Request: fold
Amino acid sequence: MPRSAGGRFTARAGGVVLLALCLLGLAAPLFAPADPLATRLEERLHPPDEAHPFGRDALGRDVLSRLLYGARASFVVGVATLFFSLLIGVTLGAAAGWVGGWLDEALVRVIDVFLAFPGLLLAIALAAVLGPSLANVVLALSVLGWPGYARLARAEVAGLRRREFVHAAEALGARPARIVLAHILPLAVPTLLVQATFGIAGAIVAEASLSFLGLGVAPPTPSWGGMIAEGRTFMLVAPHVILFPGLALAATVLALQLLGDGLRDALDVREEGRRR
Reply:
């Protein structure tokens, strides 16, 4: 199978799984068999059955319902973090790549500082200072996520800055902002798109990690990381409490990785050019 064809198949497979998970999260009220916050202590740690396919947790809450509602938190964090990271990173990176000089040098040094520290540790520190909430998780992850997109945008704009079509646009009187937005950045979309899929996966894992540590989504709001943290004490007597949130998290990250790998292969125009 040609590499591009294999890439398209992988991207479709990951996209289908990701779309199904997103739809289940959006339609959680339709598919959830019970209120995700309703407790039934007399049925705590009840194993899966027909009425509750994923069983109940330590407070008697339906695991499937909490799983579906928890998907909302994961995808909201992933998409919101991607939006703000792209907005900040692409704006700064494109400006530095076009202007060059001291602005480019300053941005490179700032990016190096951010990339020198483990991202998750910085996210934990920021979340601990800001307090546990969904908005603070997005803010912390966005502050740490923009350098990767800034580096890509800077490299693309700086590499295309001296190309003939840019000089032609300048000769026609186009403003720098229009040249960057209409002529240069569209050529960087494939690279940024691939990076974005991996960035969403990283944000979802980071949100689950922060929620596991008590620094993410505040209880009793459902969160996959929080569900795993709550159920780890009962892992041996009621493994279903952490099994299903762990599988949901793994399936989401795997789907995003497959989508990113498939897009990288399918959109690799340089490889297509070499084959021709």
User: Anything to note?
Assistant: The chain has one domain: 3-28+60-275. Residues 63-99 form the longest helix (37 residues). The domain at 3-28+60-275 is CATH 1.10.3720.10 (MetI-like fold). Confidence is low (pLDDT under 50) at residues 269-276.
